[in-house]
Amino acid sequence: MKQNNDYMEKMLARKTPSTGGGFSAEGMKRAEALMALYPVKRSALIPMCHLAQGEHGWLTEECIEEIAALVGVSPAEVSGTASFYDMLHLEPVGQYVISVCTNIACMLAGAYELLEAVEERLGIASGQTDKDMRFTLEEAECLGACDTAPCLQVNSRFFGPMNSESFDKLITDLASGALAGVVPPHGVLSRVERVFSLTTKGATDAAQMDTTDAGQK
Amino acid sequence: MRGKNNMLNEPIVTKRMGFEDSYTLERYLATGGYEGLRKALSMTREQVKEEVNKASLLGRGGAGFPAGRKWSMLRQAPTSYLVINGDESEPATFKDHLLVERDPHQLIEGTMIAAYALGVSQAFIFTRGEFALGIERLTAACNEAYEYNAVGKNIFGSDFSVDLVIHPGAGAYICGEETSLIESLEGNRGFPRIKPPFFPAVTGLYGEPTVVNNVETMSNLPWIVLNGGDAFAALGQGSSAGTRLFALSGRVNRPGWYELEMSKTTFRDLIYDKDLGGGIIGDKKIKAFIPGGVSAPWFFEEHLDMGLDQDAVAKAGSMLGSGSVVVMDETTCVVRASWRITRFFHRESCGQCTPCREGSGWLEKIMRRIEEGSGRPEDLDLLMDVCDSIAPGVTWPPQQTTICVLGPSIPSSIASAIRHLRDEFLEHIKLGHCPYEKDHILTGAAR
Lengths: 217, 447
Ligand SMILES: Cc1cc2nc3c(=O)[nH]c(=O)nc-3n(C[C@H](O)[C@H](O)[C@H](O)COP(=O)(O)O)c2cc1C
Ligand code: SF4
Ligand code: FES
Description:
The complex is a heterodimer. Chain A is built from 9 helices and 4 strands.
């Protein structure tokens, strides 16, 4: 299933968030392919933000500008939209974003105790990033894996049930690279690429319509 | 994820869960995959709709509206888009996560059947962004399905063509609400739209008539088409037909997913049966349980013998909602539990409506004050007053004063807890801490 092409290799090689920059040539190609999937270009805005995060680790200003230009809105419109969503980061975040769920099912299984242990192990409080840009810690709402409570995600990959010992092991495995195939850099929802473009006639026609305003209220 | 379905003669949506490779096309085809779509294409659209009508398939996304009725509602224009809701973020719900990650082809097949019945040529599956593995598998399955000609142009040689887009969400509970989902799919902030006029069936995606259905709703369709609506309706009872995927969590020995025949199984079975929930951890007594996601008012011991039936649960003043059951035992601090749920709503309110935005904030503050030991007995009336200002009368189903029903769902947990366990609140206030502190594992600081 995994299409580990050069593009992915490059993303996997990135250890810390980049300091800035726009889409790579390949990334730009993918962004354009995403836009072609929707009857209205703006619908690709959020998927393109994920793509940008895959390349840089966060939503860089340059990528925001490029997305804005592609969709035909202002950069402020893109960053304003992105700011609504928890997964989109307008500031650099660590290589691993650790999200500890403390919602009801996890709480009933000791999630706050887990969060304390995680904070202690990482030396940062939830909402913070360590100075080496390795870890960002967040307290999450229900992640949809309550049967493995208390659970957490690392770059949107699930681990649970967790306790302080299994968390220590997780950190060790992340550091040693043992989990490289399981936990890619965050933001990478593009590890598997869509390989088919739209094929029905109606959709193709619609894709050529320029209706960038229809998506706005 | 662990779970079970062997209480059934024949599971409907979880039959492949035992296979390691359940998400591949190869396994899917080896287990009857895409036969339902082939059969549907040999029928007329009306015939397919009729089977779904006969099945009495209630929407599995929370509101429980019959899928057949949704598809045939009086329309000004033919449906243009089909949008599948896979945003699953209702706390304690994890069934769509399972279906997306472990049987993506079944979801795609169901979606194609619905697209055919509705005559749409463009469908979207909106998948919660945090389900990264699920999105990868769904995308891979979509590629396979195109190649296999189960999606795309002239499906299986018919004159029916439809395109499918797997759309990733980006982390916002409110985007599960269907009009917010549509806003988000259009590339905007996920602010719910005012209904009327923005009923998706009339003015949905890109202003066009749109059907929004849940992932589990779609996943039932291949079986319904293959076996007939009557066979589905023969399971369960009355309007609660078929099986349903229940998500059990909290203080039970065996949390997990369970596919069960509706109505026939009771909450007691689900929680205590040794093959299901396996009873409460440490054989403690039950204090309360949530029957259908944290938006639902709580149930108590006296409700245990009720069947898992949409109408019965509604009549008793709550909802089966997303099919997620959370168990709280005698050592659970109800102040803390209802505070945590309130805090969730406060964090996730989109902020458009004052009662929801401000009300959730006040409730959270007062609850936190009690939890941290500075509560006053008058706070209970204050809490109920605030609840009343969000949902006048604090009834269920609630009165709606806001754009969407997130707002009126906020009081559910607090009102349930205060009405049924008032003494515990007062005790907590008097002691300045939880009366069960020493008994349970919750020692971490609330924040
Ligand atoms: C705040 C809120 C959150 C919701 N979240 C979801 C969700 O995560 N998944 C879902 O399918 N429906 C959710 N719904 C219900 C949808 O609005 C809609 O009724 C449903 O997707 C329709 O599908 P169905 O008829 O197949 O159930 C939510 C509703 C509200 C008010
Ligand atoms: S009720 Fe709450 S979540 Fe719903 S639209 Fe109003 S403010 Fe937003
Ligand atoms: S409550 Fe933690 S994953 Fe659901």
